[in-house]
Design brief:
single chain; 217 residues; mainly beta; Porin; 8 strands; elongated
Length: 217
Amino acid sequence: MLLLFAVGGMFTNMGAIPFTKLANSKAADGEPMGFYARPMLGVLMSQIDGDQASGYNKLGFQVGMSTGYRWDGKGINALEMQMALAERGSRRAFNAETMVNEFHIRCRQIELQLNAIRPLSVGGWGSVDLIAGLRAFRVLEVKETQGYNPGIASDFRKNGLMIHLGVGKTVDAHWHMRIGLDYSVNSLVKGGTQSIFYPTGVYHNGMGATVFYKWGG
């Protein structure tokens, strides 16, 4: 949050556009310039690469707040920070033919993301936002709810980092929607690829759809 205020101060102190004018102005892509804050709610479909299962079968969520600063300029025209409670993980159903066991790994964590946003005109679609960011997370809880793995909580690291890529579109005066992809930068388990139980390491791999509510229209 302090970073966002610092960025805002830098631009207003440059005297390019007074802050009072920013509050009533719009960037070239039609979005209001200046500071903004938006509650967010999303659905996540995830898996954990390296857990011997495949498919985005784990349904999760993210709920939180997004705040940022937008200016009128070519290229990147906004910096944004998000803070959310999220649930990710992995899920596999029992297979009677192969006798492969079922499991449901639930990772609940606090996630803090910093984004750079660049608008792009796509003809009849109007303007969309291209989003790239880094998402740091702190694990609150890891548990297995269908299979049996009593030591799973001690296997996982408490902190991690993901890369985020997404596309956003303002739907109307109050709603903004995004789809995105996330992938872990480092292995989720202690010891990385040196672990005998996870020789390739394990990594969050997810996709999601999120809606943002724009106060004030």
